[in-house]
Amino acid sequence: MTFLNVWAVGFAGIAPVIVLLYLLKLKRRPMPVSTLLFWQRILQENQRRAFFQKLRQLFSLLLHLLIFALILGALMHPTLDRQITEGASTVLIVDTRARMAATEPDGQTRFAKAKAEATNVVRQASALRQMAMISVDAGARVITPFTDDEKALRETLGKLSATDASGDLQSAINLAGELLASRGGDRRIIVFTDRPAETKPADKKIPLEFVTVGTARDNLAITRFATRPVLSSPETSEVLLEVANFGTSPAKTNVELAYDGQLLDVKPLSIEPGGHAVQVFPTVPRPSNNARGWLTARLDTKDALASDNVAYAVLPVEPPKRILLVTKGNWFLEKLLAADQSIAFELVTPDSFSASVAAKFDAVICDNFVPSDFNIANPGANFFFLKQTPFNTSEPALDQPLISDLDSRQPVLRLVNLQNITLLHAASLQLPKTEDWNWQAPIRSFEHPLLITGEKRGSSSRVAALALDIGDSDLPLRVAFPLLISNTLHWLAGEENTPVLSRRAGETLPLTAGESVLTEPQNPWKKATAKSPVVQSLFQPLTNGFYAWQTPNGTRWLAVNTFSEAESDLRQAGTPTSAGLALPTVSLARVTGWPLWQYLAAAALLLFALEWWLFHRRRTE
């Protein structure tokens, strides 16, 4: 027997006080009476009963001492665990990966069943049976160190929930082996999961037991969902979606594509058992400045695992290109730039032009104007010259030139059709010959270039020159006009490197100075959380959804998905088992469900009731 509260022995000093109370003699009061005739008879009878009275007092004393001993024993918290010199240590590994959220036919999730099994084992925690707990999702972490506190273990279990992350059990088993490496006595690892893994701890002497829950289930899952801008049309994007059928029978479903919560398209899919279906949505508009860019795909099928029926992606919001228009007045250009939402322009006259100001813009349009200090070796900005250019020759202007050559492969001519364009005049240009520049003439009138583009090697400097006066042609009346100007400006401004706006659940996102991420995800079907914790160093999302990513340049959105066939494939499941109870010690609590101190307290209460009854029956004093 082992006493857990040895300090309670100090209360044994109360026992002499109880005995002292019984040794006290009665103090009789003198009282005058009229005669002693009757009192002498009573005194004689009391003398004959004195022996039995002493026995009655002794029985009462022993009864009270026994009650006190039972109370003292209960305070000392005894346990009948068979003594083991170094005790037993058990590590519980609780699987919280995405597959544990699968719903079973009885309506319970696999994770709920695993928690119930773990709770049964936690009840066995005691001073000689210490337990630690590890949760495993994308990685393994200790959530409770070794303790004999059953309440603390149960509270930790209650706070656990299944995540949307994927991972493997090997890291958790290795961590459990490290925890047990310095422990003596009996050691054991118990894993609560939906199927056993073919893995062992580094120390082969440590027993490894799998407690499995769940049954094989069919499941449909979105395994890929990505977006990218269309090369031939940067203002639009294409969406790739892949759906897998992890089932034993053919499946039909509809996939719903939504943008910022608004339905865009619905596609029916039929997938064979074990097959995959790929769907491409070719023309999805890029988001405007006031949009969030949330793109969601949802399957309208209800199956065992709901989390992989929804996928999230972000269409990045491109900041508007800052354009400086230098002109004395050009109605067509001004209206065109004002109507283009991808452009933010400012207008100045040639007299107000400053090279230092021009360097702050993504591109500069010089309408019939060339800066006096312009140097092709070091332009200082990305220029687009109209009519008057640095490449004009002394030859007379071309009258009614015909477009003979047009290189549609050049990005400035994407989707531009210049057939039947009427040109009254065009400046005579000469293609520069500089070694550190790559010059092209996408539009020609036989040997005369009408459009010159150049890009400096090893630099972001770009220059374009159009030999036309817009007012001397019908180009502003054609669809080709806004396309040509927009293509040229976007080519001059260049494409910014958009950061990766998607992560798998469990992946770590390093944050730089000034960046932070709200730790609670948002989605179009739930109201945004008013207050959410913020992480500012390393961010590891464990739940799918959209996360607000605060940067010095504004707010971005981060899409998080599971995208793991191992988590979505629920066809493989182990036979449901319970934790073995062959622990190295046997306790009364294990057999009856009550610890010994509760029996002692109940016995003391019962003797209290018995003593009260005997006292009122005059059986004790």
UniProtKB/TrEMBL annotation:
Protein name: von Willebrand factor type A
Pfam families documented for this protein: BatA, VWA_2
Residue ranges of the TM segments: 6-24, 58-76, 596-615
The organism of origin for this protein: Chthoniobacter flavus Ellin428
Top-level division of the source organism's lineage: Bacteria
InterPro entries according to UniProt: Aerotolerance_reg_N, VWF_A, vWFA_dom_sf
SMART domains attached to this UniProt entry: VWA
Domain VWFA: 87-248
